[in-house]
Task: inverse folding
C-alpha cells in the first residue's frame, strides 16, 4: 500500500498585513520590499510564532517574485521552477535551494540561495557572504553547468538594544565555524545582558536604536563584485553566475537608488538578467 503524500501545514498568519498578503498574490519585488519593511518595523513586537511565520512567508514571497521575473524573461521556465526549499545533493553535502530547476537528463540546472538579513547586520553580513560562496562551491562541484545565484537582502539600518537584536547577535556568533575564547566570552556577556533587554522590551516594546548599515554594505559590495560573473562551467566553482544585494529603507519601503551602484551587476534587475542569460546559454530548450 502506497503512503499518502504528506501535505505541508499552512503557515499561520503573522498579523502584519503586508506580510500575510504575499501568500494571496503573485508578488513583485516591490510587494516583497513592502512586506519585509513592515516586518522589520514591527518585529520587536511579534511573538516567536508570528516572527517565524513571517520569515517563512517572506522567503517564499521573495522566491516567487524572482521566479516570476525569470519566467517573464524565459517563458520555458513556466511551471518548472520550485519556489520552496528543495534538498539538493551537492559535491560536499546536501543543501537547500530556495529557487531551483531540475531536469531528468541534466540534473540540477538552476539553484538560488536567498539570504535576508534583518538583525545583527554587522555580524550576519559576513556569515551570509560565506554562506553563498560555500553554496556555489557545493553545487558546482557536482553540477558544473548549473546556474547558481545568491541574494542578500539588507536594510539600510538595524535595530539594536532589544531582546531580539541581542538574540540575533548571539546566533550569528554561534554560527561562525571557529568560535575563539574572546567570542565565547562575548556570547556569555550577551546572554547575561538578555534579562535587562527583556525588561526593557516589556516596558517599551518598540524600544531600540537605529544604527546605519550602509558602510557595512559598501564593504560587502567590494567583495561580492569579485564573487559573481561566472560565465562558463570552466571557471572557478566558488564564483556565482549572479549575485544580488537588495538594499532597502524599511521606513519608506523603497529600494536604495544607488547602492549597489548601477553596472556592478549586483542590483536586482542586473542579477535577474545575469541568471536568465546564463540559463539561456547553457540549457536552451
Result:
Amino acid at each position: 500500500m502506497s503512503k499518502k503524500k504528506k501535505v505541508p501545514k499552512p503557515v499561520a498568519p503573522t498579523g502584519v498585513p503586508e506580510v500575510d498578503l504575499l501568500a494571496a498574490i503573485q508578488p513583485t519585488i516591490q510587494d516583497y520590499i513592502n512586506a519585509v519593511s513592515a516586518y522589520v518595523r514591527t518585529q520587536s513586537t511579534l511573538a516567536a510564532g508570528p516572527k517565524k511565520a513571517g520569515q517563512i512567508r517572506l522567503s517564499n514571497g521573495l522566491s516567487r517574485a524572482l521566479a516570476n521575473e525569470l519566467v517573464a524573461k524565459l517563458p520555458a521556465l513556466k511551471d518548472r521552477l520550485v519556489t520552496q526549499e528543495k534538498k539538493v545533493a551537492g559535491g560536499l553535502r546536501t543543501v537547500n535551494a530556495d529557487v531551483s530547476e531540475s531536469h531528468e537528463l541534466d540534473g540540477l540546472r538552476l539553484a538560488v540561495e536567498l539570504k535576508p538579513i534583518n538583525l545583527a547586520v554587522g555580524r550576519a553580513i559576513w556569515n551570509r557572504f560565506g554562506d553563498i560562496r560555500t553554496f556555489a562551491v557545493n553545487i558546482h562541484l557536482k553540477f558544473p553547468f548549473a546556474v547558481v545565484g545568491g541574494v542578500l537582502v539588507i536594510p539600510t539600518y538595524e535595530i539594536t538594544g532589544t531582546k531580539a537584536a541581542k538574540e540575533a547577535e548571539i546566533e550569528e556568533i554561534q554560527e561562525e565555524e571557529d568560535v575563539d575564547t574572546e567570542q565565547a566570552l562575548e556570547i556569555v556577556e550577551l546572554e547575561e545582558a538578555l534579562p535587562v533587554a527583556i525588561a526593557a522590551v516589556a516596558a517599551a516594546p518598540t524600544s531600540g536604536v537605529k544604527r546605519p548599515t550602509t558602510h557595512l554594505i559598501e564593504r560587502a559590495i567590494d567583495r561580492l563584485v569579485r564573487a559573481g560573473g561566472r560565465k562558463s562551467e570552466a571557471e572557478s566553482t566558488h564564483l556565482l553566475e549572479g549575485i544580488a544585494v537588495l538594499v532597502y529603507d524599511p521606513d519608506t519601503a523603497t529600494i536604495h537608488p544607488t547602492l549597489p551602484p548601477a553596472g556592478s551587476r549586483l542590483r536586482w534587475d542586473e542579477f535577474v538578467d545575469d541568471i536568465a542569460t546564463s540559463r539561456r546559454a547553457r540549457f536552451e530548450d
About this structure: Residues 65 and 237 are 27 Å apart (CA to CA). The chain has two domains: 17-160+208-282, 162-195.
